[in-house]
Specification:
Number of strands: 6
Order of helices and strands: HHHHHHEHHEHHEEEEHH
Largest sheet: 6 strands, mixed
CATH class of the largest domain: Alpha Beta
Strand order of the largest sheet: 3-2-1-4-5-6
Helix content: 40-55%
Number of domains: 2
Number of helices: 12
Distance between the termini: 53 Å
Structural class: alpha/beta
């Protein structure tokens, strides 16, 4: 049951820990009150609000407290116990993405925490190439175009941060990325024709990787769930549920509600069916790249 925490961020480690503890309590068929009654027989100060806050990631938990809870839940699997205790002891360590936080907008900080631990990402974009697949030149033109008031140094720092994020796709066990792009992305010039040609060729190269799938949603589809805008579904390590993500001007929205995430999942499934096949998509992207010659 032991797992390599690798690049997993502190935020994700805490969620893995608390989600698994909640599941173990439910599997033991124990209420919060029953658990607290047992915990109070041992050391430490326990209350129903404290236990609830722990399960909702609003209260920290120490390794010795995890051990107490595991004893109450009757957990004897040593590998499982070791893994949860490791999560508890490393829950405050800095993730490998922390150092670039200062070079991205504040509303994107939480996404960095999730990205560091991604198992998979399903992403639909209507206006631009996904950040994990952008070339430096495209990213530079995009950031400068969206924020014309930014100083050159700040633009370069943001470009560097974006390229650093892309290391996720080249690590030993990379996350799966399934990106669906509206056809307009291929036609909207960002930067010079050379920048666009190289960017589209980068998409073609990325699609060769076994863990990357790229599809294009053709204009002929007409009215579809695409009109509700771009979004992502983030798959994180077990036992954490999928998270929905959407962003707009100056804001980012993270959805944990199961029904709302299910709606995103259904939307993505429909868009997958409406889009060109991966092979036909690559051909269309290649033709578009040649059109910028």
């Amino acid at each position: 049951m032991t797992q390599d925490s690798g690049p997993v961020s502190a935020t994700v480690r805490r969620w893995q820990l608390t989600e698994k503890l909640r599941q173990l309590r439910e599997q033991a068929d124990l209420t919060h009150d029953q658990v607290v009654a047992e915990l109070r027989k041992g050391p430490g100060r326990w209350s129903r609000p404290k236990l609830s806050r722990i399960e909702n990631r609003l209260h920290g938990i120490k390794p010795r407290e995890v051990e107490q809870m595991l004893d109450v839940y009757g957990v004897t699997d040593q590998d499982l116990r070791d893994w949860l205790l490791e999560l508890a002891s490393t829950a405050n360590e800095r993730g490998w993405m922390v150092d670039i936080r200062k070079n991205v907008p504040r509303n994107f900080h939480e996404m960095l925490e999730w990205e560091a631990a991604l198992v998979a990402r399903r992403q639909f974009e209507t206006l631009l190439v996904p950040g994990l697949l952008q070339t430096a030149e495209y990213a530079r033109a995009l950031i400068s175009g969206i924020h014309p008031d930014l100083a050159e140094g700040e633009v370069e720092r943001r470009v560097a941060a974006r390229l650093t994020r892309q290391q996720l796709l080249t690590r030993a066990t990379p996350p799966r990325l399934h990106a669906i792009l509206d056809a307009g992305v291929l036609e909207r010039p960002v930067g010079s024709p050379l920048v666009m040609r190289n960017q589209l060729r980068r998409l073609v190269e990325a699609a060769d990787a076994p863990h990357v799938t790229i599809q294009v949603l053709p204009k002929s589809v007409g009215a579809s769930p695409a009109l509700e805008g771009p979004f992502s579904i983030l798959t994180l390590p077990d036992p954490m549920p999928d998270v929905g993500y959407a962003e707009g001007s100056g804001r980012a929205v993270y959805l944990e509600d199961r029904e709302r995430v299910r709606t995103y999942t259904l939307r993505f499934g429909i868009l997958t069916e409406q889009s060109l096949s991966p092979a036909d998509s690559v051909k269309l992207i290649t033709d578009a790249a040649n059109g910028y010659g």
